[in-house]
Amino acid sequence: MRAQDPLALSASELAQEVYAGNLKAHDVARTYAQRVENLHRELNTHIEWDKDAVLNEVDKQLAYIEAARYAQKPLPLAGVPIAIKDNIMVDGQNVSCGSQLLRNHRAAYDATVVQKLKAAGALIFGRTNMDEFAMGSSCENSSYGPTVNPWNRRHVAGGSSGGSAAAVSARLAPLALGSDTGGSVRQPASFCGVVGLKPTYGRVSRYGLVAYGSSLDQIGTFATTVQDTALLYGVIAGHDPSDSTSANIPVPPTSLGPSSSLKGKRIAVIEEFMRDGLDEDVRTHFDQALQVYRECGATVETVSLPHLAHCIPVYYIIATAEASSNLARFDGIRYGARSQKPGLNLRELYTQSRSEGFGREVKQRIMLGTYVLSSGYYDAYYAKANRIREMMRREIQGVFEQGIDLIASPTAPTTAFELGQKTHDSLAMYLSDIYTLAANLAGIPALSQPIGLCRKGLPIGMQLMAPAFGEETLLRSAQVYEQQINGTQKFRPRI
Amino acid sequence: MSRIDRQTVEKVASLAYLKLSEDEIAYYQKQLDRVLDYIQQLDSVTDSLPADWRADLVGPVTPERPDLIQPSNAVEKVLRTAPKVVGTAFQVPRIIE
Amino acid sequence: MSSKSTELKSSDHGFNSILARFEPVIGLEVHCQLKTESKLFCGCKTTFGALANQNTCPVCLGLPGVLPVLNHEAVEYAIRMALAVGATIRERSVFARKQYFYPDLPKGYQLTQYDLPYCQHGTLLLDNGRRIRIERIHMEEDAGKNIHGDNASYVDLNRAGIPLLEIVSAPDLSGPAEAAEYLKKLRAIARYLDISDGNLEEGSFRCDANVSLRPVGSKTLGTRTEIKNLNSFRNVEKAITYEILRQADVLESGDKVKQVTLQFDAAVGRTIVMRSKEDSPDYRYFPDPDLGVLHISEARIQSVRANTRELPEQKVQRFQEAFSIPEADARQLTEEKELAAFFEDVVKKVAGSVAPKIVANWMLSEYLREFNARQWQFEKPFVSSEHFAKLLKLLGEGTISGKIAKTVFEEMAATGADPDGIIAAKGLVQINDSAAIKAVVDQVIAAHPEQVAQYLSGKQKVYGFLVGQVMKISAGRFNPNLLNECLKEALHGKS
Fold first, then answer.
1. Is the CB of residue C172 less than 8 Å from the CB of residue C130?
2. CA atoms in the 13 A half-sphere facing the CB of B3
3. Which residue of C has its CA nearest to A205?
4. Average pLDDT over residues A381-405
5. Residue A112 per-residue DSSP state
6. Measured distance CA(B71)–CA(C43) in Å, rounded
7. Which terminus of chain A is less hemmed in, N or C, by CB atoms within 10 Å?
8. Closest C-alpha among C348, C78, C298 to residue C190
9. What residues contact C471, with CB distance under 8 A and at least 6 apart?
């Protein structure tokens, strides 16, 4: 049997080959480790990449994989390396959230998703770079420097899960996990030309994900194909008693059958999203992608969702309010970096540690969130934002209740912008999230898939949204499209 | 017209236990002012929800776990990497009450 | 069992004259620790006295990424309390985050119920017939403990996350004694319901008092002050008394009472200002997005009601009716749940030979005297109900006299020995042998001719002296009835 190149296989193929004994997990690990070793510095995909430490951990997992194979226990991710965003707990490994405050913080437990990955035979493969505490849309807010776009290193990888997106795009791992509070999986997936899925709120346990906006956060996946996305999603989805917001609803099997037609599927395009600010190049490719969907049997119509026009202010009120509270625990008392300044009293110690540890954007969002929750402002901001959020949720639900199966939009109004272009204007950065926020605010699943390259040669993504717990529809439809365009090989950067 | 003045920035920073330099105060005053100005668009948005509608009352019911003890060894790991520990307690500057 | 402290009142003659001019208005906020096995939102033990931070886990340490899950039993306990004070239970209530920074608060916020508590509008009846309104009861998690050294403080989070009920009365209490009675009754209810050990010293039952004065006859409330953390019934009375005197002083000198939070220094018996109203923190409450709605259905309330326990008031009624004892005795016996149980146990064991009334008398005099003097604990009774019942039975059956019984009980209280053993060892069995009694009677009559003559001439008082002489010789062991018979017979034989 001819030895296969692990880098050339999809995650699904890798798992099958390893489980069948045609490929050694050990070799897969070393091949990928070498690739990360060669590329992570120039792309800045990883935080504190330590090849030996990673391979040491992997060695423990190899024994488990062998034992499971012997016992004929199925391992859907046998020997598949997976990169983990630096805000998800892996017991015994550092977890910094891209922040100086947690630069030496070691996780004391496994996130539920990490437990599931380990049980499925996956190889935990490095911590990926991110905007500090997931606050950002470009990965430039990382205190470990920005991740750059594998397609063009003068451009951002997107954020906040930029490290994970770039790592999968550059094939430093076949799979990666990210977190998505307002588009932090889908937007970098779009910028890097990979498939990014944000599942329904409550579908994947948040236990062990460092909270940003608790009512919006959801762990999501990165892969190069829809098939691999479904594979990873199938492993991490499901009820978790440790997460009170986890949905106790069975997960339907996610193995995708052979391509079927999209005949009868109705796709809606939101009128309010197709106005100002949308790049012409992106619009053209989006229209072409819709045409492909039509060719596959779907119909496309336009709907109006007026409240969605306000998703940016609603999102930034709710997310920052929750964040200001979620980040209160970072005080340098029990963990994290404590200021070394001598002679501080208790209050000064708190203030100094937090001021030294948090970066500029994080402080800004903490302050915005503190402001909107402070005495006298709650009703005008937080309560009001929640009411409009509910109106948006109802509008979206209304669309699905009318028989629409999917809502489509570009994932982002532009392709990856240049490094430094928006770092001095928070508002401009916030505006780039316009298309992705609705899915988080409504708690529905959404997927970004690559649909083309712009004139600058940067990937363009298209977003599909489905009703809550409609991941299967999302994945099946996206897969039909992917097959129609003959796969995603063309969305691999030349590295 | 400014939505947020210097005192407000300082008050909010103090509530959040953050210390800002002069430059930072100026920076955040400008940034927050822009963002709050943008957010102000919500003032004109109306909704058709009942006046007493509350997001926290309409949400799903919280699950309840059985009253069982689940041992954990996390504290040993936390104490090992904690900034300052005496015995098994976290040390902080003396609290004056 | 502490007796009501009245020394401050009696020592200060000014107190009553102040009450002639001012009406105190007092409300109590009571924190009652629930004795569940595990904490409110995690599976850590709730036991007292463990090594610092040993009863902690990622959740109650406030590590990044953790999530709370509500303890079912704590909710059941909370419902019991609500039913016991006849309160209204809200079907859907909400946990909020109360945000402030303090080392004993690991998340930077406390999970507590804010404007939507699970319970409202209860009442508690005082012995004087006044109904004290309970405005609300809510569930919340306890904070940890800061221990203060000379140069540093130390944080122990064992208590962090233990479930509490906060029970807030209306300002219906009119004085220190009523406040103490209310608190005692509330504690008795919590203990009868088996939801709290009500231990004030260990802090499982804590009390804050709101105190204000208004001129007698006035309807408007005066400015109130809040005294924090009163940890004994005695201190509740002392602190409130002091605060009434202090406020009266302020008002009479023409000043205004300032709205402040106070601490009671028990050592010097004074209240000290902790912070003024201007410093009162902005807690920025908002609903916790990590928890859903607390749902208490009518069916759930009914099932708790069906398993309800007898309350102190109900026991008072039952004791009066079933045992024919006066209300005052019934109240005293039911003040502590264990005392009432002990009483009932003894009554059952002596049924048929000793009337419950006799048992009650013995309990309230002899037993309680020794109990208090020797500081016995209910948990491990020094004199068991078996021994105590046996003693009363021996008395009832005439084996020993009342006087001997008291001697025997004193011995039991000192040594913990079996009454039979004591009686045998000391030869205290009652003598019912008429011949033996007659012999001694004859001896006494012979020895005291003068007294006999006095008796026979109509001086009835001398009879007692003669009985005493007989008893002295018999060491109190003669059956008193037989002794009477024999002595009278012998004396009348003389006449």
1. yes
2. 16
3. C67
4. 96
5. H
6. 7
7. N
8. C78
9. C478, C483
Give the closest residue to A285 by CA, choosing from A55, A101, A449. Answer: A449
Coil/strand/helix, residue A449? strand
Total residue count of chain C as it appears in this document: 495
Q: Rounded to an integer, what distance in angstroms lies between the CA atom of residue A389 and that of residue A467? A: 16
Distance CA C161, CA C215 (A): 43
Catalytic residue among A10, A137, A179, A184: A184
How would you class A260 by CB atoms within 10 Å of its CB: exposed for 0-12, middle for 13-18, buried for 19 or more?
middle
Kindly state the average pLDDT of the residues B44-56. Answer: 92
- As a whole number of Å, the end-to-end CA separation of chain C is 55
Contacts of C286 in chain A (CB under 8 A): 321, 325, 373, 378, 382
A 306-325 residues with CB < 8 A to C = 321-322, 324-325
Q: Are residues B82 and C69 in contact, defined by beta-carbon separation less than 8 angstroms? A: no
Helix, coil or strand: residue A133: helix
**Rounded Cα–Cα distance for residues A193 and A286 (Å):** 14
| Closest residue in chain B to residue A384, using alpha carbons only | B42
CA distance B42 to B38: 9
Write down the pTM of the prediction. Answer: 0.89
Dist CA A227 CA A247 (whole Å): 24
Give residue B84's identity as a one-letter amino acid code: K
Alpha carbon of residue C251 to chain centroid: 35
In chain A, positions 5-64, which contact chain B (CB-CB < 8 Å)? none
The pairing of beta strand B89-93 with beta strand B85-86: antiparallel
Measured between alpha carbons, how far is A233 from C239 in angstroms, rounded to an integer?
A: 61
**Cα dihedral sign, B18-B19-B25-B27:** negative
CA distance A390 to B46: 12
> What DSSP letter does each residue of A31-56 carry, written as one string?
HHHHHHHHHHHHHT-BSS--HHHHHH
In 3D space, the residue among C74, C75, C76, C81 whose CA is nearest the CA of residue C123 turns out to be C81
Residue A161 among the catalytic residues: no
* A156-167 confidence digits (pLDDT tens): 999 999 999 999
Contacts of B53 in chain A (CB under 8 A): 387, 390
Q: Residue C42 in contact with residue C141, Cβ under 8 Å? A: no
A270-274 — which CB contacts under 8 Å span 24+ positions?
A270/A302, A270/A303, A270/A304, A270/A305, A270/A308, A270/A407, A270/A409, A271/A302, A271/A303, A271/A304, A271/A305, A272/A304, A272/A305, A272/A306, A272/A308, A272/A309, A273/A308, A273/A409, A273/A410, A273/A434, A273/A435, A274/A302, A274/A409
- How confident is the model over B77-88, as a mean pLDDT? 94
Residue A250 C-beta-side C-alpha neighbours within 13 Å: 2
Using CB atoms, which chains have 3+ pairs under 8 A with A? B, C
Please list the alpha-helical segments (H only) found in A135-180: 162-169
Q: Is residue A22's pLDDT more than 70?
A: yes
Q: What pLDDT score does C212 carry?
A: 94
Whether the CB-CB separation of A242 and A112 falls below 8 Å is answered with: yes
For A173, what's the count of Cα atoms within 13 Å in the CB-facing half-sphere?
Answer: 31
CB A103 within 8 Å of CB A330: no
Chain A environment of C106 (Cβ under 8 Å): 329, 333-334
Whether pLDDT at A430 is above 90:
no
Contacts (Cβ under 8 Å, ≥6 apart) of C198: C32, C187, C188, C190, C191, C204, C205
Give the Cα separation of A240 and A62 in Å (integer).
26
CA–CA distance, A429 with A422 (Å, rounded to integer): 6
Look at phi and psi of residue A65 and say left if phi exceeds 0, alpha if psi is from -120 to 50, else beta.
alpha
Cis ω on the peptide bond leading into residue A160 (within 30° of 0)? yes
Q: Which of A152, A209, A212, A172 is nearest to A361 (CA)?
A: A212
ipTM here: 0.96
d(CA C102, CA C109): 9
